[in-house]
Design goal:
Elements lengths: L13 H7 L2 E5 L6 H8 L6 H8 L12 E5 L5 E3 L2 E7 L2 E5 L2 E3 L6 E2 L4 E4 L4 E6 L4 E4 L3 E11 L4 E16 L9 E5 L3 E5 L3 E6 L6 E7 L1 E6 L9 E4 L2 E5 L5 E5 L18 E4 L8 E7 L7 E7 L3 E4 L5 E10 L9 E7 L5 E7 L2 E7 L6 E9 L8 E6 L3 E4 L5 E12 L8 E5 L3 E5 L2
Parallel strand pairs: 12-13
Antiparallel strand pairs: 1-2, 3-11, 4-7, 4-9, 5-6, 5-8, 8-11, 9-10, 10-12, 11-12, 12-15, 13-14, 14-17, 15-16, 16-19, 17-18, 19-20, 21-24, 22-23, 22-25, 25-26, 27-28, 28-31, 29-30, 29-32, 32-33, 32-34
């Protein structure tokens, strides 16, 4: 199967310009001069003149100890920081410097990179400070700032989500000048350590910010510095429209799954959510780890039933959310479950030597079968109860006339030698009428 290429088109530099307008505050210490500060921490020594004019400093060689001076971020020296590709699956495109880069785990990704995922594709980045950015299917993102500011020994991170969504798990900052911002075409958000989601609706262009942990400041437009912001605490969200409107809402509480720990043994994964009138849809994300770094599948459903394509055997984690009628995605609930493919179906027909019962199924690892034939009703004592069968057929002859019920079960052992759990399942009872 071939995968369609993902295009990453150039976009305007509005986000970069807005970020450069911000300022950092520096408190002068004994021995500091503006010119010496510029030589060490500003990109050009002559930039001290801009700082002098901005702060109305009369003498750049004499500044009182304790005076606070505002310095534009765009003037500050920095060293380049990097993100690493912690995990990825499917059709992922990474471009930098006009070149497309082959994704490999651990790949270092720098400022100016563009990333895109197609359907059924996922990636997670880890930043230098331990923060993680997860990018699910059908999303496009640019890394517009990835810097370590020398003057303040602080980080300056900024991402631009052009389409789709990301999840930001930001390590709490310990320096006042630390910055982490996410921009969309219609809004910008800033945090100092939190877990939140950013999503751009493809049809309406509305940008959603939904806070799972911590607090997020959100402003409509392209700048958060000096703009009117709303504080989005855990369990709430903000939505900015293309017309500049900004609204907040409470997020729906986590959904409850019915029998979430059951072994997922069918061809497709099946989850059932307890119904709630206020839930318009549900999303399910499957990951191989509890931190949801290595995402393997996801599905959006407008019902309480969520079906996902089959995955390899193993132990996984599921994260479920509910969408309200207002478009906000609610708080998550996480569950662990085991995936062990073990399908089973049976059939019966009459041949020359009696009734032949056959069964078939899929699953890795050793499979042992058990066959039962019960006369009259399923509560009766089995007439035939054969265990330990390794073949997929059993023939019974000389059955007296009457009604019978039969079924077949499988005991399946995992192909993983470290997994000693044994899984068992039965087919439904089938009715058989014998009339010789």
């Amino acid at each position: 199967m071939s995968l369609a290429p993902i295009s990453i088109l150039p976009t305007t530099a509005l986000a970069q310009t807005a970020a450069d307008n911000a300022q950092v505050e520096y408190v002068f210490k004994k021995g500091d001069t503006l010119i010496a500060l510029a030589s060490k921490y500003l990109r050009k020594r002559s930039d001290y003149l801009q700082v002098q004019r901005l702060n109305r400093i009369a003498n750049p060689r004499f500044i009182p100890v304790g005076k606070t001076v505002a310095i534009p971020f765009r003037l500050l020296k920095y060293r380049e920081s990097e993100a690493s590709l912690a995990a990825f699956r499917g059709n992922v495109v990474i471009a930098a410097g006009g070149q497309t880069i082959t994704p490999v785990q651990g790949l270092e990704i720098g400022e100016g990179s563009r990333l895109a995922t197609s359907a059924g594709s996922f990636l997670t980045l880890q930043l230098e400070d331990g923060s993680r950015i997860s990018m699910p299917s059908n999303s496009k993102m640019r890394i517009t700032r990835l810097r370590h500011i020398l003057l303040t020994d602080s980080v300056d991170y900024e991402l631009a989500v052009d389409n789709g969504r990301i999840r930001s798990k930001v390590t709490p900052f310990d320096k006042k000048a630390d910055r982490y911002r996410v921009r969309t075409p219609v809004a910008v958000s800033a945090v100092r350590g939190t877990d939140y989601r950013t999503r751009v609706d493809e049809e309406t262009g509305t940008a959603y910010s939904e806070t799972v942990e911590g607090v997020v400041d959100v402003a409509a437009g392209q700048s958060i510095d000096g703009a009117t912001t709303v504080s989005v605490v855990a369990g709430t969200g903000a939505a900015a429209t293309v017309t500049g409107d900004l609204a907040t809402a409470d997020l729906l509480s986590p959904p409850e799954l019915i029998d979430p720990a059951k072994v997922q043994s069918e061809e497709t994964l099946q989850f059932t959510v307890s119904p709630r009138a206020e839930a318009a849809a549900h999303r399910m994300i499957i990951s191989s780890d509890a931190g949801f770094v290595d995402i393997v599948a996801e599905q959006l459903s407008e019902t309480n039933e969520i079906s996902l394509a089959g995955i390899d055997d193993g132990r996984y984690f599921a994260k479920a959310t509910a969408f309200g009628a207002d478009g906000f995605e609610g708080m998550p609930a996480s569950y662990s479950f085991k995936r062990q493919l073990s399908t089973l179906s049976g059939s019966a027909d009459q041949g020359d030597f009696g009734f032949r019962f056959k069964w078939t199924g899929a699953g890795s690892g050793k499979r042992v079968y058990r066959f039962q034939l019960i006369p009259g009703n399923i509560e009766a004592v089995p007439l035939v109860d054969e265990a330990g069968l390794t073949s997929d057929v059993l023939t019974l002859s000389d059955l007296p006339d009457g009604e019978y019920f039969w079924r077949v079960g499988v005991t399946q052992y995992s192909a993983d030698p470290e997994d000693r759990d044994v899984f068992q399942k039965w087919t439904d009872f089938e009715k058989l009428t014998v009339a010789n």
